[in-house]
Amino acid sequence: MSTPRFPPSPRRPVSTQGPLRVMLLENIHASAQEMLKAEGFEVERLSAALKPEELAERLKGVHLLGIRSKTTVPEEALKYADDLLAIGAFCIGTNQIDLLASSVHGVPVFNAPFSNTRSVAEMVLAEVVVLTRQLFDRSREVHAGQWRKVATGSHEVRGKTLGIIGYGHIGSQLGVLAESLGMRVLYYDVMTKLPLGNSRSVPTLNALLAESDFVTLHVPAMASTHLMMGPEQLAAMKPGACLINASRGTVVDIPALAQALRSKHLGGAAVDVYPEEPEGNSDGFVTELQGLPNVVLTPHIGGSTEEAQASIGKEVATSLLKFVKGGATTGAVNFPNVEAPINPGTHRIINVHRNTPGVLRDINRIVSDLNANIHAQVLSTDANVGYLVMDLDQDVSRQVCEAIAGLETDIKTRIVS
Ligand SMILES: NC(=O)c1ccc[n+]([C@@H]2O[C@H](COP(=O)([O-])OP(=O)(O)OC[C@H]3O[C@@H](n4cnc5c(N)ncnc54)[C@H](O)[C@@H]3O)[C@@H](O)[C@H]2O)c1
Ligand SMILES: O=C(O)CC[C@@H](O)C(=O)O
Known about the structure:
alpha/beta; Rossmann fold; Alpha-Beta Plaits; 3 domains; five-stranded parallel sheet; 13 helices; 16 strands; elongated; binds nicotinamide-adenine-dinucleotide
């Protein structure tokens, strides 16, 4: 775990006077824009990702940032984003964001942990059939005027074994769908998971690779999953087996996969995610896998269905609104989770501070010196930051807010009135 680098204390509350500014990147669904606009926010919606330097520049004065998987949010982009209240990752993966830096800059990150999982599971199931029947190759041939009616190497999926690596929201749904086609389902996960249907967990990755006709990856991008399918693991797969990766591009060693396909050790592959992906739809793309037989290449569209995107738009916009309006951090992936009922007739102070001893004492001294009455106070901390939601009498709330923002330990303070 890297050491947190706290920004200098802001000395002033975040200004939330006037309409809040929202920047949505990467073609986030219009459902999010509609919800945020309905609250009176100024919403700018762009179709592509921004490079970190441009992002840093354009984040000045922005209160809410919405991204998907292509926008990298490094610490540098957060340094001058003094007004940034929260980031919405309109997807599942949050590996593109420096979560520690966001947390110590007082910026919670919200994602959509379930909304696109069914879409991914359906696409992967389709790919199992497409690969075993070599449908894309046959289709390409007929498009080119070639008639190759062959059965060799084509199989039914009934009775074949699907090996799922990562039995989370996607992997477990996929297992249930695959059983409905008569497949045998094995899974390997680092956590103990409830097997659904007749699926069976195996104790090691190698045990899964040795038995599976199809191996599909559904793990997050993290140090322990980096290149987890390398030359050794690919060699451990059954001859003629197919590999599917719709998780993250860093999980599979692409040159090793290309080699395993060229040598015909593997019978095919479907790849949706790549170590480096273009930022927008007009950019070109090159991978070593292009042109190989029985290889399905898709442009990171596992979760790209209208149903999933509309639902993600609403889910993440709802989290952002609950945070802006009441300070709720439930579901934030990098922040202490707090959700306090609204106290009508009070003003709510939202404060993020360095988690060092004595901060609550200092804050309560300010409240007491200003003779303010506390109606509610909820504090939750993690290793780096403390997150405080406090409801006060309206007449003193602004003074209290300004005094708290002046504390050495302060990271971000605002008032919701
Ligand atoms: N292609 C797409 O468009 C698309 C869409 C959605 C999600 N994704 C990717 O799919 C990933 C999985 O999504 P999910 O919703 O199922 O996540 P999840 O968190 O529900 O499940 C991930 C599972 O992987 C397991 N795991 C972690 N490290 C492992 C390891 N080393 N070996 C085996 N298992 C391990 C976890 O214990 C967990 O059960 C996401 O993190 C995201 O990167 C891609
Ligand atoms: O929509 C995207 O950009 C990412 C989809 C997927 O990889 C996710 O993490 O949810």
